[in-house]
Write a structure and sequence with these properties.
Blueprint: H1 3-12, E1 19-23, H2 30-38, E2 46-50, E3 52-55, H3 63-70, H4 87-99, E4 102-106, H5 124-128, E5 136-138, E6 148-152, H6 154-157, E7 162-167, H7 170-181, H8 189-196, E8 201-205, E9 208-211, H9 212-219
Parallel strand pairs: 1-2, 1-4, 4-7, 7-8
Antiparallel strand pairs: 3-6, 5-6, 8-9
Length: about 220
């Protein structure tokens, strides 16, 4: 299955409820954003959400700014800020993601993190526990750039219909396979996503999409 064909079909499909696309920050997904921006599409039925956000003074380094720029103002990208992590707004978002078709497109860091879920975070266990209620949490200062962050937890991400791990180059592909074979894979954030979201996950490699089952002979 081709990544671009899958996305185009999703964007043009008609559903009763508005569709949702959730994007992570980082450079890994830039080519995916460029492609989505190029599609001639009716945007009235699409919500664009942020998987995570940097709490940083330089607005040009926020995920919102980077994604908005790539999408060339064609899409209504929704802020992820302190107001959005109130109990009311989290419950509203949870209902929205549950009641309509949602896909999440995310990259993977070289340390195996995704979203703003880092192994060394003080709230790592809280973020990665699939049994916790879907939520958006604030982290301590962590990552690069070194700043506090908002991030969806694993159980919120798992509300998606499909989750695409976008590996944008050969180095990331080799890292992913290395992580999946690692003796310490349970310590890697990305492995928890694969383990708990197995049936929902598609992995984009060289613009093709693979299910975890299709890759299992390589990565197990």
């Amino acid at each position: 299955m081709l990544f671009k064909r899958f996305l185009k079909k999703f964007l043009k499909a008609k559903y009763q409820e508005r569709k949702n696309i959730i994007f992570s920050g980082g450079r890994s997904i830039h080519s995916a954003l460029n492609f989505i921006s190029s599609i001639d599409n009716n945007l009235d039925d699409i919500n664009v959400h942020l998987l995570d956000e940097r709490i940083i003074k330089n607005e040009n380094l926020t995920n919102y700014s980077l994604i908005k720029k790539k999408l060339k103002k064609k899409y209504n990208v929704l802020f992820l800020n302190k107001e959005k992590i109130s109990r009311y707004n989290v419950a509203k978002l949870k209902k929205q993601l549950t009641c309509s078709k949602t896909i999440t497109i995310l990259g993977m860091g070289e340390d195996g993190h995704f979203a703003s879920i880092f192994l060394k975070s003080r709230i790592f266990k809280k973020l990665i526990n699939k049994n916790n209620k879907p939520n958006i949490l604030m982290t301590e200062k962590i990552g690069h750039p070194f700043c506090r962050r908002f991030t969806m937890n694993l159980s919120m991400i798992l509300l998606s219909y499909k989750i695409i791990i976008y590996l944008n180059n050969e180095k990331k592909k080799k890292l992913f396979f290395k992580f999946m074979r690692s003796q310490n894979k349970y310590s890697l954030p990305i492995y928890h996503l694969v383990l708990n979201g197995r049936k929902k996950i598609l992995v984009s490699i060289n613009e093709k999409l693979f299910t975890i089952n299709q890759l299992k002979n390589v990565i197990i």
